[in-house]
Amino acid sequence: MVSDNFPRQVEEAAAFLRQELAQEPAIGIILGTGAGGLGADLKRSKSIPYEAIPHFPRSSAPSHAGKLICGVLEGKTVLMFQGRFHAYEGYTLRQVSFPVRVLAALKASHLILTNAAGGLNPLFQAGDLMLIRDHINLLGNNPLTGENVDEWGPRFPDMSQVYDPQLGELAEQTALELGIRLRQGVYVAVKGPSLETPAETRFLRFIGADAVGMSTVAEAITAAHAGLRLLGVSVISNVNRPDAMAVIAIEEVINMVQRAEPRLSALLKGIVAKLPD
Fold first, then answer.
1. What is the rounded distance in angstroms from the CA atom of residue 78 to the CA atom of residue 72?
2. Distances (CA, A) of 19 to 1, 14, 44, 54, 267
3. Helices (H), the chain
4. What are the structural domain ranges in the chain?
């Protein structure tokens, strides 16, 4: 028996959404910085602001709308989170991954995570899409810290295949059909909000990362614990070259992601269309 209120809060949020939604979603999509436009493609959609959902955190990051949209995308019932939460906003990693817990409580089977990331691989270009094949957790904590809820998942979940290989192959196939260049690589999460120094950039590349950001990994760990099939896609907003670091502002990141968004949306819609009902 757990000693805090977190499981109760998850169930109360899920119960609220069961009453609000026409049917429980099969697929969850969490959209990252600058990538909220896909919500316009949902049919028969209903929008719920985060502040209306019991115990939901508030999103304060730029370009994160802070609303939940339920609707039909390519014939599938989808729950789309326009805006996520980050450790640098002061949230614990449990709070950061709260939407994933709620999604699992609603019996969803698939989760798609997107983010904006700085490229570390020198072969990447700004605007590229990267399929996340693996990740490195440098957030300084883990969303599973604390007493385990056995009904949610095992105390020591296996992490050998956090990102579903079959979904990765489906993404590759879909990108090929659409003529979209889809890179592949390892995503590393740091806490932020300061961006990386040249020395940190060199270190992150040395340990095997291809892209760096401040999100996604806590949600991915939680999804693995909950048994969700997971796909992750990064939009490379810029490429960090430690010997010639360029100054970058968040406005430039958002602008680049918005320019790449039509390709990201096409890819995600193509993937969703091929997922089982």
1. 6
2. 27, 9, 16, 13, 31
3. 6-20, 93-96, 98-105, 165-178, 198-206, 217-226, 250-274
4. 6-274
Q: Are 9 and 95 in contact (CB under 8 A)?
A: no
Residue 161 · residue 214 · CB < 8 Å: no
State the architecture of 6-274 in CATH terms: 3-Layer(aba) Sandwich (3.40)
Distance in angstroms (rounded) separating the CA atoms of residues 105 and 53: 14
Concatenated DSSP letters for 143-192?
TT-SS--TTT--SS---TTSS-HHHHHHHHHHHHHHT--EEEEEEEEE--
Q: How many Å separate Cα 20 from the centre of its chain?
A: 23
**Looking at residue 42, what DSSP letter applies?**
-
- Local structure of 33: helix, strand or coil: coil
Q: Per the omega criterion (within 30 degrees of 0), is the bond before 193 cis? A: yes
- Residues 265, 150: Cα–Cα separation, whole Å: 36
Cβ neighbours around 16 below 10 Å, total: 17
Question: For residues 264 and 35, what is the distance between their CA atoms, to the nearest angstrom?
Answer: 8
Residue 61 has pLDDT above 80, yes or no: no
Q: Indicate whether this model's pTM tops 0.85.
A: yes
* Calpha distance 113→131 (Å, rounded): 10
pLDDT digits (tens, 9 = 90+) for 131-176: 999 999 999 999 999 999 999 999 999 999 999 999 999 999 999 9
What is the widest separation between alpha-carbon atoms in the chain? 54
**Is 43 or 59 the better-scoring residue by pLDDT?**
43
